[in-house]
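Lecture 7 notes: from sequence to structure.
We start with the chain below.
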Amino acid sequence: MGRVVGPRFPRCRPQVAGLGNPGLPGTRHSVGMAVLGQLARRLGVAESWERDRRCAADLSLASLGDAHLVLLRPRRLMNVNGRSVGAVWTDAEEVCLVHDELHKPLGKLALKLGGSARGHNGVRSCFSCLNSNMSPALGQAMPRLRVGIGRPTHPDTVQGYVLGHFSPAEQELLPPLLSATDLLLDHIRERSQRPSSGL
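Predicted structure tokens for the same chain:
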């Protein structure tokens, strides 16, 4: 079920939201937006972003077979990304989040259905704004593509770490990481063929 999307961006599923901080490209915390950008290029809509002030986000509409796919890039800070996502969609099952994951090594990817935010404030914000339950059995599980960024050795440096840029050595691992679009598209195609399910 949609909210602010209109004729240009119809109420369709699936939808993908790349989490991050606007104006901070290339940082670990914004790797979800980087993957979303790669997905937009893959689908031929990288130059088709449109700003929607009602939801404080950039939106792009892509074709995926016979269906349409709405891409969303929040223009709010990470901790309140959910306000942009929740302004467009109300059903958590219709939205796939792409976000950074401290608990996985750099270069590791994982698709997850439901589960806790594990301290990720952007994910927590989306859960709150979409009223998503944490368990798939409860029927409101939000699909997520978690992109591993590793974690610093000292817990007190986490904030600076996630807001920092990838090191030169880490950047060498990014090309295959951004190819997470293959994994994401396969998942979307599979889920979109299930009429009684969400994404």
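Points to note: Residues 49 and 190 are 26 Å apart (CA to CA). The longest helix spans residues 180-192.
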